[in-house]
Automatic annotation (TrEMBL):
Pfam families: RBFA (PF02033). This is Unannotated protein. One of its GO terms (molecular function) is ribosomal small subunit binding. GO terms for cellular component: cytosol. SUPFAM superfamilies: Ribosome-binding factor A, RbfA. One of its GO terms (biological process) is rRNA processing. Signal peptide: none annotated. InterPro entries: KH_dom-like_a/b, RbfA, RbfA_dom_sf. It comes from freshwater metagenome.
Amino acid sequence: MGNSHRTGRVADRIKEVVASALESKVKDPRLGFVTITDVRVTGDLQSASVFYTVFGSDEERSATAAALKSATGLLRSEVGHALGTRLTPTITFFEDALGESASNFETLLDEVKRHDAEVAKIRESAKPAGEADPYKHQR
């Protein structure tokens, strides 16, 4: 269990270092509005997967992916200096589908709300199938 705690701390530190380096050190104009969402590190600390989201169009996403790929060496050296471990993990960037999922989820919620409003409107004008009071009352 101690190893998983260490990988979690290393992943958090890599997330902080990469995010700050993207703000201050990487000067690539192709780099869009990037948010580092998650970092996952292997148990042996040899490899780190960095997940990011980009706010913008598909062209901006592909340009940002190219900018991150070209800045991987610089970011890896920054991570190596900050971590101080014997080996610096290799960094691989993956676009996180979190933004798209949230957008799709919002669309689905809007559709459900619209459907609920239609059902409520139908319910207001509905009449019972049989008598108005189907229960037998004793006289």
